Amino acid sequence: MAFFKSFLPFLVMLLLACSVQGQLLPDFYKSTCPRLQRIVRSATKQAIDKDPRMGAAVLRLFFHDCFVTGCDASVLLDDTPTAVGEKNSAPNFNSLRGYEVIDYIKARVEASCPATVSCADILALAARHSVSVLRGPRWQMPLGRRDARTAASQLEAGANLPPAGMEVPGLIGIFASKGLDAKDMVALSGAHTIGETRCGVYRSRIYNDNNVDPNFAAIRKNNCPPFGDDNKWTPLDLQTPTRFDNKYYRNLLGGRGILHSDQALYSGGPADSLVKLYSANNSAFFADFALAMTKMGNISPLTGANGEIRLNCRKPN
Q: What is the DSSP string of 133-181?
């Protein structure tokens, strides 16, 4: 009993330490890498100034990372002769871009704070800064993630990422499995106000759907023939493709969503009211998007003694 009484305070302190260690905190690197935010923002802006489409690419990288095995930078891992991972899965192959941007940011961070900041946190911050550089909302991104040592399988990646032809119930289900609700799903879908998509992804929408604006479909068909040119890219939002705004939702009201899963959000279902709200109130969209991004960034992070701080984002140490 005496041993237990003397050991109890130590046990409590140990449990508290583990609890704090497992939390994500906005100022996690305040003392260990004080210039982190400035470095990531500067490098992200530099990449977007060079190629305005890169902001959307980095944001999409973060989404595709978090939705598979959590926000652990596993999507950044290259395949090896013995391990085939997420990069070449069906939803990612010839589609995800921006890996070299994360490599560049990582190199700059390593030069300032060696072996300190995870690739997972760099990706999270780059996604955040990409949105703000493109005139979207700003928010504090909690940090303290560690990196996975292995990637998920191609099958696992394909099963966890929502396809472009999915209906609202399926979308709600996939997001719910990640701890995100319907409002989060509709708000995060607004990321499609920037970036591009491939002809092979949206062809069925403009040729087969009956809830598409005819003039919009005709314009899109000019860049996407009935056959071939699957990898020809086009902006998701023709009006302001490199500005983060609520035009995405306004397009849905007029039947001008380019993906079937986009237009499904405004098709007489449970998401209609949120689409109307965000189309009329950009501030409401920004606020809910920022909250949803924070929640998404907290999907199954590796913390504490789990994972590692990769020195090269493309391979484990």
A: HTT-------B--BB-SSPPPHHHHHHHSPPTT--HHHHHHHHHTTT--
